[in-house]
Design a protein that fits this description.
Blueprint (H helix, E strand, L loop, with lengths): L22 E6 L6 E2 L4 E4 L5 E3 L13 E3 L3 E2 L5 E10 L5 E2 L4 E2 L2 H9 L2 E3 L1
Parallel strand pairs: 7-10
Antiparallel strand pairs: 1-7, 2-6, 3-4, 3-5, 5-7, 8-9
Amino acid sequence: MNANLKTIHPSVSSVIASGHDAVTVTVEATADDGIYPAGMLVSMDEGGLAFPYDPAGSGLAIEVKGVLAEEIDTGKDTAALLVRHGTVKAESLVVGTSGTPVTRAETEALVQIGIYAV
């Protein structure tokens, strides 16, 4: 039998920088919440669901937990690859789904959780 059960289209993250290998984990993202761009800073709710970090928000929304390694469309898939430690490309980092560049304070917040923008 010659069957093709699934086609995989691997991609290489443009967010992860070389020099110090990244530690990544797969987390569940909030469903039907739009497209999350690669490099987006991520917060997590009480149930462990990833959602966009929001510096103007409150509570868990203002706690950075990682950086999204690859873009995901949460209307189609909720598995998100999250950088939890290591080096990331500074120019790839964004806040929210609109792609707002990160501030120096946000870059420093990443350092506090072991993620270094280079």
